[in-house]
Amino acid sequence: METDIPVRDVMVREVVKGDMELNVMDAAKLMRKYDVDSIVVLNNGEPEGIVTEGDIISELVSKDIKPSTVKLKDIMTTPLVTASPMDRLSDIAKKMAAERIRKIPVIDGDELVGIVADVDIISVSSEMNTILAELIEMNVERETLRTESEGERMGQGICEKCGSFSHYLEMEGGLMLCESCREEMEMGSD
User: Which of 83, 82, 75, 101 is CA-nearest to residue 20?
Assistant: First the structure.
């Protein structure tokens, strides 16, 4: 399963960081400069918390507080939920769901080495789903060749012409077709 890969294979290695004393205005400028939606907050060089765009909106914008007057330490989420580079992606996805968070900094020893977001996990899952679909298609093609040579029906699936589900698909003109589309195709060729 694609989620059993280690976090290190998916994490983003360039993490935007800011000291606890940095004001939110300057932090937002860093976030914009690097096109990210979070900043990991450091205390004496060690990861201590995280501030996201959502934090800035809920803690400052919605309350009409000037960002230059607030420090990261005042709005950061802490304690920081972290992952190790060797943690399984499936475990991190579960942790994110349980903690209701979308990003987890990755710590190796005491060093911040990356960050993994929900979108990183989704993109890996999407890629794996594409590969899985291709494997299934290859298997269907192999089964189709076998059933054609044996003169049998393919079985159930999605008709490649109309897109509807059918319990009785058969190969016709290089497509897996339901009975209605096969009949339609046969009538068109007469």
Answer: 75
Which CATH superfamily, name and number, covers 2-118? CBS-domain (3.10.580.10)
Q: Give 32-70 pLDDT, tens digit per residue.
A: 999 999 999 999 999 999 999 999 999 999 999 999 999
With CA atoms as reference, report the closest residue to 81 among 53, 112, 59, 103.
103
The answer to whether the CB of 2 falls within 8 A of the CB of 128 is: yes
- The pLDDT assigned to 161 comes to 83
Looking at residue 13, the DSSP 8-state letter turns out to be: S
Locate CATH 3.10.580.10 in the chain.
2-118
Assign 53 to helix, strand or coil: helix
Which tokens sit at 80?
Answer: 């920081």
Name the DSSP class of 129.
H
pTM of the model: 0.64
